[in-house]
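Z., the sequence and structure:
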Amino acid sequence: MIQLIVFLPLLAAIVAGFGNRAIGNVPAKIVTTAALFASCLLSWPIFLGFMAGTSSATVEPLLNFIQSGDMNVAWSLRVDALTAVMLVVVTSVSALVHLYSWGYMDEDPDQPRFFAYLSLFTFAMLMLVTANNLVQMFFGWEGVGLASYLLIGFWFRKPSASAAAIKAFVVNRVGDLGFMLGIFGTFLVFGTVSIPEILAAAPGMAGSTIGFLGYRFDTMTVLCLLLFVGAMGKSAQLGLHTWLPDAMEGPTPVSALIHAATMVTAGVFMVCRLSPMFEMSPVALTVVTSVGAATCLFAATCGLVQTDIKRVIAYSTCSQLGYMFFAAGVGAYGAAMFHLFTHAFFKALLFLGAGSVIHAMHHEQDMRYYGGLRKKIPVTFWGMMAGTLAITGVGIPGIFGNTAFGFAGFHSKDAIIEASWAAGQPGVWFVGVLVALLTSFYSWRVMFLTFWGKPRWAASEHIQHALHDAHGHDDHAHDAHHVDDHHANPAKAEDAGHAPHDHHDAVHAPAEGDGGYHPHESPLPMLIPLIVLSIGAVLAGFVFHGYFIEPSAGEEFWKGALAFREHLMHEMHGVPLIIKLSATIAMLLGLLTAWYAYIKNPSFPGKVIEQFGVLYDFLLHKWYFDELYDLIFVRPAFAIGRFLWHRGDEKTINRFGPDGSAWLVQVGARVAGRFQTGYLYTYAFVMLIGLTAAVTWAIGLY
């Protein structure tokens, strides 16, 4: 069964990719979508089997991959509780994204290629989560990197899309270098790349040291930190996060699949898979906690001021990944995976809902040109409402003997916040609560700007284009090479990842009015995934929380698939009342602030921006990370490249190499050409001189 789950997407990708236009759009979509739904239907029984306690960890061997000296890499598929969780996350979201793309990409001329890339990505992700050794995990790791490059740059004729794809690829190479060094070091220390053997031997390495960069360090700390660098790149943690917001240049279904539920969670999965190693290094866990908490706060502050609906959700993803990492850092690996699980449903829902809004608004992504859409696109509205209630953590805490009940994020995010307090990390707990407030504010800001208030559509250039289009707004082709999820106006630099808007843009809202435009609800293939994901956003937390984080049930469910701290889970449930209520209080404060700023007193945000202009610019420019990296890395790299190009290649290598040799041949040819006059007496004279010289030389010898 596991072989079918993993290889059906690969087979579908081959058929759609190589068949391409020869088989046509519909057959390519049918093959890829059917394969993903088949994988999904086969994955859920495995997950439910671990929930029921009837399944146990298995390894399905496929073939011997590498045998070189002491290194023996067998290609095999591991299935345990951790794998089962990832199987349902990856296949469920991917299947729904495939279906959603039937409607969203309906007018695209390259649909077979798009669906082939989606299926190829899914195969690579499944290889990653079923890996039984680090080399196979690295194969999947690089596979999802390649597929994400292809998907982000799907509309490669659009310069901003190509630039975003290259940026994602390059930044991830930095993280992958750390991951490779970690794999090399792990093999050096343990003599194997088999994950079960490494984890079994890890406790024996506690307290040992290893030479690195000329010094001796704790072995497990060095290995775990190198591996974590890889996780930072793939999961867009602070320092290696800059690629994620720009990756929104890809089609919206790509954002939902890659940047919500799958690839960006690979780092969290890797840390949890190798959690017995990280347990041997308190220093590494402290670094994981600190980076996760810093990322959580950083991304949430950036999300406060974005006006592009997809970029708000992108920064939200980055922030929620920070939650997962600091949960793992404090030892709550079950809570980290629980938030990964619930986050897949509500974040994919929010991305796909945003795509539905963009579809209705003729590619407009700027929320300042929305408003009043609640009754125009009701299914999309209620879907995004479910996602917002989930991500903000709306629920009823279990403080009066009642069973806690709430939306998905309420159970998973609150568990992380409580676990950080129980683990003796009050600073991390404070960051978690503060970010819960910020998350609530920017999430409800999206809802209020998009669905409430009066329409502000007339000021949108995209809407004006639709109104003047000869085909009207009914011809909703998502031009693969010009616009989709992207402002056509180059003056709006935010869409290319540069400084978005000045104070005037932010303070003075666009004029109200619909301009005669009539938004329309998305087609059924786009609405069905929204409805299904809404069910997950509502129920996933309440239904599954016991298996992930309850002390006894969690231990029985995970069965050693990760380092489950049962005592921490006990302590988490016994935290003080104010700690249990802190996340809910923060959520309510964020909701009330957003309501006041965007419903009750819409002039309030402009006054705040005028008062705190420096802070606003700082957040609007994403803490100036892009500008700083451009100054430190990009410009010097280009300067070195130009120097080596002009001075090294052209003026040195070419001058004294091929160009110099060619010059010598030309000069020699011209000199020799002077003797080629075509006159017989000239040739006779030269022959006479030669003969005289030869005779003179011969006489001289004797």
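The longest strand covers residues 58-68. The mean pLDDT is 87.

Let me know what you think.
H.
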